[in-house]
Design brief:
By secondary structure, the chain is α+β, with helices and mostly antiparallel strands. The protein has three domains: 5-44 and 101-176 and 272-357, FAD/NAD(P)-binding domain; 179-269, Alpha-Beta Plaits (2-Layer Sandwich), CATH 3.30.70.2450; 395-509, Glutaredoxin (3-Layer(aba) Sandwich), CATH 3.40.30. It has twelve helices and 25 strands. The strands form six sheets. The protein has a seven-stranded mixed sheet with strand order 6-5-15-16-17-14-18, sandwiched between helices. Helix 1 (12-23) packs parallel to helix 4 (102-115) and helix 7 (300-319) packs antiparallel against helix 8 (328-357).
Amino acid sequence: MNPDVLIVGAGPVGLTMAAELTRYGLRVRIIDEAPEPTDKSKALVVWPRTLEHLDRLGLASTFVATGLKATHGRFFTGERELAQVALNTGDTPFPYALMIPQSETERLLDEHLASIGVTVDRSVTLTALSQDSTSVTATLTYADGRTEAVITPWLIGCDGAHSAVRHAVNAAFEGTTLPSDWVLADVHITGPVSTDTAELHLHADGILGIFPVSPTRFRVIANINHEGSKTADGQSPAEPTLSDIQGILDKRDKRGLRAVDPVWLSGFHINERKVADFRHGRVFLAGDAAHIHSPAGGQGMNTGMQDAFNLAWKLALVQRNLVAQQSSPLLLDSYNAERSPVAAKVLKGAGLLTRMATLDNALLRGLRNSFIHFITGFDFVQHALTDNITELAISYPESSLNGKGSAPDDTPKPGERAPIRTGETPVSTGDTPRFALYAEPGADAEQFIACFPQLLESKPRPPFEPGTICLVRPDGYVAFTADTNAWPQADAYMTNLIYGPQEKVHLSA
């Protein structure tokens, strides 16, 4: 039987996409050209906002039990600590950076998919695709040379930086390769290094990052030449030796750390690239297929997984005919409109952090260090840094899905992440994407829910502020907020969402 959605790529993004779409009742097929899952650590951190999304899948506790909690980030120059950033002060059920190798992230998602009847088809490559107004035809090639034609309403490319899907839809991957060489090592370290802290050492020779993986295992990452001192030729630098890594530790960290028992050693270049549009008709791009960034900040995998959480509920509403055909463009086009700016911001921020950390000029390095030490002394800066690093600050302020209404200033605004209150069940945990109504119980709330039973939770939740009503999307972002006199506007919002633009009625009504 042909699937509702064909997902190409079974990394963290593709697996997340498959899990969400299956939860919402769609028939999913997921393929990957690799014969087996990765055994490399690769992406290392799952941020609180991603854990909040995983909580709707019922997987957050499993991830937390598997990973290691890092609660602080520290900046050093030589033996001097420049700054410390708390990662445990965000208003979230998961106030920490969860350090977990990508291989484990994929294992947990793969096991979850298997438990709900979805298995990755491996050693299968997408070799061609075409589409019309109703379907996509994908040509799949097996390792033994066999080919198969799959017809599906939707196809999602989650197949990484060298995406076959992206090439097939002729989406330009615009950007640059930074002219610097980098090394990465997963090693066991002995010496005075903390397992609850991510460290960044800013040395005259370059950057050194040390990140915990397990109680004795750490990720070491460093540039081995200054920005601009060598032009990257498109080939990865030679794999470093354990002696190379030890030499970097000796020079850029003065605590006498010893690296032993290497698990993974690699050289790499940093690419900063992004497609202009995440949607091409019935084909979507997500994760590294749509955007790749510097590893600074550890945002790449999380951004891709959140692409999946953003798209899945919208695609499920459309494919299951829970909204009218006229509403399809509003929902599906909002995926690019919302996620492309987020990816652009991550790309810009990670690139800026990388360039600042690899300054070649001694005067500029001194100014940078003084600025970091000074600015992180302010509480409001600390809070802003925490919310941005942990991705709790991600929002969609210009989204076409935002409704408008009058509400107190301290009420969550449309496009913002909705607060998560202690002990409260996450929004939309079931098998249908549902909005949550936050309002005082009563006849008005009951009547409103009765009008849209297919897309609203069956009972209202306590309001965020007295005298207000608020609608929260299935992915946990505010859709509409207003005072309790605005039930007609709330009704207009849901009507437009389900049935498409109505005459004389708009989402911004």
